[in-house]
Design a protein that fits this description.
The complex is a heterodimer of chains A (about 90) and B (about 290). Chain A is an alpha+beta fold. Chain A has a single domain, classed as Arc Repressor Mutant, subunit A (Orthogonal Bundle), CATH 1.10.10. Chain A has a three-stranded antiparallel β-sheet with strand order 2-3-4. In chain B, strand 5 and strand 6 form a beta hairpin. In chain B, the strands form two sheets. Chain B has a five-stranded mixed β-sheet, sandwiched between helices. Chain B is built from 13 helices and eight strands. The radius of gyration of chain B is 20 Å and the shape is globular. Chain B is α+β, with helices and mostly antiparallel strands and about 290 residues long. The chains are: A alpha+beta (about 90), B alpha+beta (about 290). Chains A and B meet through strand 2, strand 4 and helix 3 of A and strand 1 and helix 1 of B. Strand 4 of chain A pairs antiparallel with strand 1 of chain B, so a sheet runs across the interface.
Amino acid sequence: MPERYELADGAAAVETVTTVYAARVPEGPVLVLDGAAAEIWREARADDGRTVAERVAALFGVPVDEVRGDVDDFLADACARGILRRADR
Amino acid sequence: MTEASRGVPLGVTVRLGHAAVQRVADASGIRILHIKGYAVDPEVVPERIGTDVDVLVDPAEVDAFLSELQSAGWRRVIGFRAGSPFGHAAALWHQSWGYVDVHRHFPGIGARPRDAFEILWQDHRQREIASVTCTVPNPGAQSLILVLNAARSKASVPGRDVHAAWLDAGEARRAEVEALVESLHAHVAFAAATGRLDDYRDHREYALWKAVSRGGTRFEEWRARILAAPTWREAAHTALFAPLVNVEHLTVVLHRPPTRREIVREFLARPVRGLREQLRVLRNPGGRRA
């Protein structure tokens, strides 16, 4: 099922080449996403008819089942912290 | 995903700060315009960076906005009177978002603050900063603000902002800026930034802009502030209070509130410093910038 996320209301984010800095504003704090977390963030906001896990698996060249758990955990955490929200529902 | 305790690049902090300040404005229904730094459109000055957040606030809502910022975690560091000879901005600091300068008017704009804000607001634009939609002046007004800001830089040659926003700007942009100079009554400061200040030698603001754009002693600046005051009441206020100790500034210098003894010592030291500066100039008139 296609899956896409967007920045949550009340959140802000700055993306650099290697790192994503996201926050609830004005409350804070600043959350630092680097490495795989930054890549999941970027893939979560893409829109190509696939799930986020499928996009991340394709990016790293690994089976979807290998990354699905970590990707879903990250997305659940980001939504709980109020920096991402599901955009396709 | 980790919470940043430190080490967030300043440019990131400032951009998130713009977003945070905009959210406070949106939540309270107060009109603000982000100026300078990351709020500047790349077509005005390419890749301009900022070290703090600057916002011009609807003058009728300045006190309310300061109160909203303080409720959201900002702490007032420097008040309007203490910040500059123009009394134009208060500085606040937030643990996560750093400094914000809240402007109640902009130095060099001679129109009444309320009128000036309405002129700037009526054709304002939106700009994404940290993925949040922020309200900014239009490109012509951004250019003018950067040029007026440069008038206070004491630079002997025009800097990057003046080049990009005025000297190297196209005909259409220069026409927009000139129209705003007229409607905002910004002639003297604009002339100071563009090397034509002496055209306004008889204007009451001439001495002040000469002092802030080319440098001057404390006495010269104090005298210029009195001359530039639009009413005798403001002139009298400046004459009376300018020599007093700026306790907020002293707090910033000392990184703590000054003691009564330190305030008294500073009260006695300020006139002496001013006198020394004046004597130095009198002994060596060629030693200062023209």
